[in-house]
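Rather than argue in generalities, we reproduce a single protein record, letters for residues, whole numbers for local backbone shapes, just as it appears below:
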Amino acid sequence: MSKSYRVAILGATGAVGTELLELLERRNFPVGDLQLLASERSAGRSLPFKGKNILVEPVSDQAFEGVDIVLASAGGSISKTWAAVAIEKGAVVIDNSSAFRMNPDVPLVVPEVNPLAAANHKGLIANPNCTTILMALAVWPLHQVKPVQRIVASTYQSASGAGAKAMVEVKTQTSAILQGQPPVAEVLPYPLAFNLFPHNSPLNDLGYCEEEMKMVNETRKIFGTQQIRITATCVRVPVLRAHSEAINLEFETPFNPDEAREILSRAPGVKLVEDWQMNYFPMPIEATGKDEVLVGRIRQDISHPCGLELWLCGDQIRKGAALNAIQIAELLVEKSLLKSAQVVISH
């Protein structure tokens, strides 16, 4: 009989939390016991799992007793409060927030890119930012053939990146506008329906927002090099779910688009979507609910002999968050990496 594990989902009632629950069941992860944890406000609800309704409990010290794996997706402040508690009780925490991603003692893992990094965990593994994950899947296979010198990324990020409430808000705003009423913005700073705006995360002194710097710093850490020059412009767009990205890559020597196309058609976690006669390429509506990152419109950059352009769409809640976390958990189980945890963070 194969071994089963006690799994806890921290932030179980959120958009990513409910996706984690669905994926644990769909991928038949060896769950022996499941703890669903949330704030006092969200506790008391029941969520379905394998034909049963499981009660959502308020997070507490006792909730992590005997837990093997914690899938945390409740925000950075919650992770900072509870990750150390879970680790102290022997769990390995896979955290979806930005709280620990750049901690040098915490592996930042995309299983298709740097699975070996997971073996170095000390009780905590960070899940990268959604835009970083999607870009990494498309760029890494090419980087293995010819090292990337520079990346210019422009993102078109859906409401799902701001959570379930933002998705509801866009629907409400859309209805209001269609009825001739003014749209009300409460979750996001500005109306997103029939609109777009630069990503609303805090700006640094150079004018780059936090989301853009995540793509810069996290990609370098995942790829294991600080030499790649990276710049990004991140934008919120009126799409419910699935992010899109326009990626410009610069190499030391020319990269034939047909060769890139062949490489990406075989890359794990990637699906090539191109029909040049029909002008048909990846769209967020078709990436929604899909595990793969859809990549296409691969072409020579006419402004640079060593430049390559591509376009991608990926489900931010799925591969950009929940699926990547589940794949990390699967990797830990497959490679027997659920070793004794050592606390690397403080309360």
Observations:
- The longest helix spans residues 318-334.
- The helical segments are 15-26, 76-88, 130-145, 164-178, 210-223, 257-265, 284-287, 318-334.
- The two ends are 38 Å apart (CA to CA).
- The chain is about 30% helix and 25% strand.
